[in-house]
Amino acid sequence: MPIFPPSHGSASHTTSAGKPILNILGISCWYHDAAACLLRDGEIVAAAQEERFTRRKHDPSFPTNAIAYCLEAAGIQVTDLDAVAFYDKPFLTFERLLETYVSFAPRGLRSFLESMPLWLKRKLWIPDLIAKELGFEGQLLFPEHHLSHAASAFYPSPFESAAIVTTDGVGEWTTTSIGRGAGNAIDLTHEQHFPHSLGLLYSAFTYYCGFRVNSGEYKLMGLAPYGEPRFEQTIRDHLIDLREDGSFRLNMKYFTFAHGLTMTGAAFADLFGAPRRDPESELTQRDMDLARSVQAVVEDAILRLAKQAHATTGQKNLCLAGGVALNCVANGRLLREGPFDNVWIQPAAGDAGGALGAALAAWHGYHDKPRTPESPDAMSGSYLGPSFDDDDVGVFVKNKGVPSERMSDRAERVAGLLAEGSVVGWFQGRMEFGPRALGNRSILADPRGREVQKRVNVKIKFRESFRPFAPSVLAERSSEFFDLDVESPYMVLVANVLNATVSGDGLDRLQHIESPIPAVTHVDGSARVQTVSKETNPAYHELLEAFDALTGCPVLVNTSFNVRGEPIVCTLEDAYRCFRDTHMDALVLGHHLITKEMLGDEVQALDPEEIAARYGLD
Asked: Of the four, 131, 180, 225, 353, which is 20 to 30 A from 26 by CA?
């Protein structure tokens, strides 16, 4: 089956010198994390997730707002597009659903009856829907789902050639692929097919432990270090046949995701001796042990896949994408223990990054355009979203009637606030593309304080107290604090914190962390590190330098600028509302400073229940 359908023709654009320009729009939607990306002559001009505009976390709907932003950022209209690339092949996915329902019949009838109307009314007509939603009559391209992931991993990487591994829940039939990228070509040579999926295995435990699928996997990963892998052998004996070559098969006796409306059922609960955890109930040591056990199995599986990819391709470099590539603990082990010299991970590795990959596959694959690797990569730090300059901020605070101060010494002033214990909302430059805040839409704090982790979790983020925070560190100083000898600009690698020790059991470990930076040291002595370079983010780098000058510590707590259940803030209004409603102490919008003292007594932070009601959260 061809990767792309035949061409339907395209518009023609030229530069002032008469050179043709190609504008390609990539789209992902209708599952979760809808997004859009725009390429101009192969350069990533803009990319954003729809959730940031609608304020609906993981919004799967057609990315109307993200597309509008991308077109505006490029200064073009729909009529200027030469092609639109969608991140998978809907007919193959429909084929998989039908075959799965038939093979599991009569089980799955309810799921079939709920899903088919949506497919028959919408998803089977995606070409017509795209044309209608956009008013676009040009070339529509449909790379396969895992080719989109592979393209998002390899094409922006700094490598001339590399092995590629993609792994997620499922795309069409494929759940895992291995291949090779060289020059402008990608060849995926090995595939694992549904229902055998590492992503769905991990999501099954996410569901069983009481977290939300396609959202709570981060929580499961954060919970794992509190536990012991006492269920690991049970998983290996009953749930997954994991082979030396990286291939695997799930025992579908224990899973219901292929035919039901849930991930697991009675057989799974019987295997582990208890029903699924109520999402509102207290976490137990058993939940922590389950999280640690499946994490251990998935890490082993990823290491085996990497070993197979290395043996198959003979490459020294590896590129990763797919939702499982956001398991930064496994990535850290892969970097330390794997067979590759270099590893590059797409920062928007999940379905949002599929929009980027689809556009790149169209540019390099369909249009056969050459590729020149860039250093450090072609992602521009993943700062690809909307931005607001100081003039915009000035108009905003004036119209809002918000008192503020315009700082000429921003880095020094904000560093001083942080050193005094303030928690600061930091809103700068272009919004990040992908799930991580990387210093442009971030909440920042001093990592040296023991109570910072609890305070920010409970009073500002309104999330579970066990969840760890990530550090940002000056790239040139990272080896002084972390066992990490490579840069990690996208916060997708976990490394050990130097001179850190942890004792105790379960959640009690939070109280027994000995570390020079305890607020960003997890209970296994590790941290999900972001290294910050002057070239990629000069404003954030300058702040870290100023904080270092004051404290001797070039590290800050960096967590995403949002409350639990809400997407990362996008606009000035989003940022101000989050600051106003929480126990954040200060807000920095560009060069403008707003503090709670400036706002006075009329502004009171909300409690978690009020936050949930006001933000429409669960």
From this structure: 180
